[in-house]
Amino acid sequence: AVPALVYVPARFEASDRDWRLTALRYGIDTKVWDRSLVSRRLEQMARSDDWEFLDLTPALRSATGLFQGEPYFQFDGHWNALGHDTAARALVDFLARRSLLPCGGKAALEKVRLGPPRSSRPPQRDSGRRSRAPRSPPPFSFGLG
Questions:
Q1: Cβ proximity of 113 and 88 under 8 Å
Q2: How far apart are CA 82 and CA 121, in angstroms?
Q3: What separation, in Å, do the N-terminal and C-terminal C-alpha atoms of the chain show?
Q4: In 3D, which of 144, 140, 145, 106 has the Cα closest to residue 21?
Q5: Tens-place pLDDT, residues 104-115
Q6: CA-to-CA distance for 41 and 2, rounded, in angstroms?
């Protein structure tokens, strides 16, 4: 077995918009404060102990789009369906590149567990099951929950 560490970023780490709002809200000097420091330190620790490391930040950043929305719920820091789908695909790719998948490999997992790519499915709205949005959004919505 090969140990692996998967880094799940906070919403402000994966979204430039949320990073700007967080910096504004808390008075963070973005020239001094490094939002990728935690993931880099964890990667260094993992590599020093010969662990594999997967940072989900790039995958979650690239999942944001005009038509597909964002991978996080609007009013909290949890993933919505797009976020879960994105993380699952990144994890399968990570495991496949390292030959750590069970018999049948990536193709079997894609077919059985993941289904068609997110872009080929009809768009879905957030169900709101995790959070109930107020009728009008608050002045700042940081998604730090």
A1: yes
A2: 11
A3: 34
A4: 140
A5: 666 655 655 555
A6: 20
